[in-house]
Design a protein that fits this description.
The chain is α/β, with parallel strands linked by helices and 209 residues long. The protein is built from 8 helices and 5 strands; from the N terminus they run H-H-H-E-E-H-H-E-H-E-H-E-H. It has a 5-stranded mixed beta sheet, sandwiched between helices.
Length: 209
């Protein structure tokens, strides 16, 4: 019964957010008289950012892990893996300075899942992460057969923050997760206070360096 009620609450949150997004789209269409193709682009943009209220508790844990990373002298990234019952079954933080440049939390979770979970169990998981996957982690997510992905800040936002703060560009080109992983539900980026928190952690990590 508890899981069913949680599911109903998620549905209610989603329907409310959907209704609000529809109202916003209608406002833009009426005010700006947008052509059909631009309306489709606007709809896709609005519908992608569908972080649910129930996601926020997990994203807050990702923020805690990202803060631990910064405190340890690493980059501000943290991720967790949640099973179909909503239980956190694994977590990881960035360790690029502690280990090597490939020690991203998402790829560590993908490796853990491949070693400890069945194919069916992996497909039923949801990965929550403080930042959108890089291409390496996207590939690991897909190859490990993990389920949904929820991220707080996008790769595009991270790039903009770096540019604003005179940080060096990434050595690779970033692609939207959906262009690499097939048939996986993606929610993100987030908005508001949580997004500001992860931005602040990135700024803090760059100041240390």
């Amino acid at each position: 019964m508890g899981n069913f009620l949680a599911y109903c609450a998620d549905c209610a949150d989603f329907c409310f957010e959907l209704n609000e997004k529809i109202k916003e789209i209608q406002f833009h269409v009426k005010r700006e008289k947008l052509p059909f193709e631009e309306v489709k682009i606007l709809i896709n943009k609005k519908m992608k950012n569908n972080i649910q209220e129930s996601d926020k508790t997990y994203l807050k844990r990702c923020l805690e892990l990202a803060a631990l990373s910064v405190k340890a002298g690493d980059e501000a990234f943290g991720s967790i893996l949640v099973d179909k019952n909503g239980k956190i079954i694994a977590e990881a933080r960035n360790k690029v300075n502690e280990k090597n440049v490939l020690a991203h939390p998402e790829i560590e979770l993908a490796k853990w899942a491949a070693e400890h979970l069945s194919e069916e169990e992996r497909a039923a998981t949801t990965m929550f992460t403080s930042g959108e996957h890089c291409p390496m982690c996207s590939a690991a997510h897909g190859l490990a057969g993990l389920g949904a992905l929820v991220y707080l800040s996008s790769a595009k936002q991270l790039g903009e923050w770096k540019s604003e703060n005179n940080q060096p560009e990434a050595k690779i080109n970033f692609l939207p997760v959906e262009e690499i992983i097939k048939n996986v539900k993606v929610r993100g980026p987030g908005e508001g206070e949580l997004l500001e928190e992860i931005k602040a952690l990135h700024l803090q990590s760059w100041e240390v360096k």
